[in-house]
């Protein structure tokens, strides 16, 4: 409205949608689902560590030659990186703007019956912050190898072992994976509601799916540090 008055032109449909809370929730849902797809693939890829260094390092090499000879070395990986970065930014910006809208729209402090909703919102917000910080650490640890003291460039298997041979590496990753499980559980369910869950039966199925996804991701990711600590992967 304000935009239309200032420029004398009607705002575009995309602009109107982005300005609405429904639009921002849709951006959150779609970007969240893109990241979820990546996480499922990443978790499955990580499980290759159980088949030894050759298989795991070979897989990391394959990621860099994906699409070859049509695509140049690492192009497919860079496309994935750009899409993921766009999804992370869209997700974080819409989360921040939605929280500003919610604060502006709330006339009084939460009534007793809304405590549960407030708890879920707080968990999602802090979970998101923890995951954002974790991703920065994780990239410095296993992609750029900046903080990985015993890193060996081009040898991801050995680098994962180096990460999980320190108490702080294990603690950081396990805490982050717990935050990830909780975030996916509630986030997937919210995304389903935004994109139209439909009838009660479908909602029950989607809730079950949200719980299963969260559990599988948590267990799949955590199995790696646990296996290194237990000496199963060495
Ligand atoms: C125990 C859990 C995890 C392990 C062992 C692990 C392992 C790895 C390894 C070895 C790499 C480097 C791959 C390579 O350079 O070939 C990597 C990259 C990456 N991981 Fe993880 N990861 C874990 C959890 C996560 C989680 C929970 C997220 C997201 C929230 C994540 C996001 C990423 C991203 C974005 C990259 C960068 C990919 C790239 O651009 O090269 N990882 N991870």
Give me the secondary-structure topology.
Layout: H1 2-7, H2 13-19, H3 21-46, H4 53-65, H5 75-105, H6 115-143, H7 156-163, H8 167-194, H9 200-230
Helix pairs in contact: 2-3, 3-5, 3-8, 3-9, 6-8, 8-9
Describe the protein's architecture and organization.
This protein is an all-alpha fold and 234 residues long. Helix content is 76%, strand content 0%. It is built from 9 helices and no strands. It is globular, with a radius of gyration of 21 Å. Mean pLDDT is 91; it is low at 1-5. Bound molecules: protoporphyrin IX containing FE (HEM). The site of protoporphyrin IX containing FE (HEM) has 21 residues, from α3, α4, α5, α6 and α7.
**SS element count, helices:** 9
Give the cofactors and ligands.
protoporphyrin IX containing FE
Rg, please? 21 Å
Shape: globular
Helix proportion range: over 70%
Cα separation of the termini: 62 Å
Order of helices and strands: HHHHHHHHH
Enumerate the spans where pLDDT stays under 50 for 5 or more consecutive residues: 1-5
Average predicted confidence as pLDDT? 91
Give short descriptive properties of this protein.
234 residues, disordered N terminus, binds protoporphyrin IX containing FE, mainly alpha
Question: What's this, in brief?
Answer:
With about 230 residues, this protein is mainly α. The protein has helices spanning about 1-5, 15-20, 20-45, 55-65, 75-105, 115-145, 155-165, 165-195, 200-230.
């Amino acid at each position: 409205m304000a935009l239309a008055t200032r420029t004398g032109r009607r705002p575009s449909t995309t602009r109107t949608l982005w300005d609405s809370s429904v639009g921002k929730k849709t951006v959150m849902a779609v970007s969240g689902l893109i990241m979820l797809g990546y996480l499922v693939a990443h978790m499955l890829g990580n499980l290759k560590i159980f088949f030894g260094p050759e298989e795991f390092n070979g897989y990391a090499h394959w990621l860099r030659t994906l699409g070859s000879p049509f695509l140049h070395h690492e192009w497919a990986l860079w496309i994935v990186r750009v899409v993921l970065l766009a999804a992370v930014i869209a997700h974080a910006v819409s989360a921040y703007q939605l929280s500003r809208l919610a604060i502006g729209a709330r006339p009084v402090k939460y009534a007793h019956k809304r405590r549960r909703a407030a708890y879920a919102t707080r968990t999602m917000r802090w979970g998101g912050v923890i995951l954002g910080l974790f991703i920065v650490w994780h990239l410095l640890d296993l992609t750029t190898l900046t903080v990985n003291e015993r890193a060996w460039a081009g040898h991801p298997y050995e680098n994962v072992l180096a990460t999980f041979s320190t108490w702080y590496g294990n603690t950081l990753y396990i805490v982050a994976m717990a935050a990830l499980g909780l975030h996916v559980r509630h986030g997937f369910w919210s995304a389903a509601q935004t994109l139209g869950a439909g009838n009660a039966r479908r909602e029950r199925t989607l809730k079950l799916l949200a719980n299963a996804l969260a559990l599988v991701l948590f267990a799949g990711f955590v199995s790696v540090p646990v296996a290194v600590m237990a000496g199963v992967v060495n």
